[in-house]
Amino acid sequence: xxxxxxxxxxxSFEFFPPKTPQGVEKLRATxxxxxxxxxxxxxxxxxxxxxxxxxxxxxxxEIQAEGYDAAPHLSCIGSTRDGILAILEQYREHGIRHVVAxxxxxxxxxxxxxxxxxxxxxxxFIRAQTGDHFHIEVAAYPEYxxxxxxxxxxxxxxxxxxxxxxxxxxxxxxxxxxxYFNFLDECAGLGLDIPVVPGIMxxxxxxxxxxxxxxxxxxIPRWMRLKLQSYGDDIASIRAFGLDAITALCDRLLTQGAPxxxxxxxxxxxxxxxxxxxxxx
Length: 281
Ligand code: FAD
Hints:
Blueprint: E1 10-15, H1 21-35, E2 41-44, H2 53-65, E3 70-75, H3 81-93, E4 98-102, H4 119-130, E5 135-140, H5 151-163, E6 168-173, H6 177-189, E7 196-200, H7 206-216, H8 222-230, H9 235-255, E8 260-264, H10 270-279
Flavin-adenine dinucleotide (FAD) is lined by residues 45-46, 48, 73, 75, 100, 102-105, 118-120, 139, 145, 147-148, 153-154, 157, 160-161, 170, 172, 199.
């Protein structure tokens, strides 16, 4: 087994673009709080098929105007090459130099897959059109993507994205650190040495987490599921357990060499700030 390459640690926070003026205000407050933790960048999600195109851009520009590095997500399914190029040009004109390149998922009932089938094609397109302008992040799946034909195929598909020019990766969230370290070892075995930063989902609400996890293929370990179920509607106990479990996960990931953490904040600062303090970062 090849040894893993060491990378400097990178910490980042992910937001979704708010829909309402109240949501915009709330995200500003969340950002003010999280900015004190001095992350490397804030990323902003993008609705597949372009449903949040303008709101993603507005949010990214606001973050950038506040003096922080902002990384828009960009998903390609359902899009044309011209459409993606127009978005890249817009980002380039505004001095954005960091993107998270994804395939995305087609909304159900949509028949037109567009001109890109997979994220590796998007990465290749961004590199061909814009050279080295953008730092390109891609998604990685320590527990494998739910549509992958096999674990091996998924790993080889991840390799395609790296070979197409990805600079680093952020993982889908997971609760089993062994899955992550196994994935890093598999990458090292294939000679892939870009940083793969673990994506961290704080636990604040069990039913929402169970729904998300079923959809994206992230496994909630039996002991965690049973504990969380046992709290019923007792939100305070769910949060307390979530803070303990996720702090322990992050601690283990960092101690064993993860190159940073990327938090799925869901536009909330509370849980992330507490985990951060407990980790002594
Ligand atoms: P891909 O890497 O293209 O993989 C998708 C599937 O196709 C996998 O099963 C893979 O094994 C297979 N595959 C890949 N390449 C090939 C190939 N060449 N031939 C055959 N099979 C192939 N979604 C959004 O809509 N907006 C967001 O902002 C967003 N942000 C995300 C951020 C992170 C960090 C992560 C982990 C996910 C995010 N997602 C987002 C979800 C993501 O779009 C979905 O997980 C989607 O189903 C897969 O996207 P991908 O870029 O990983 O796709």
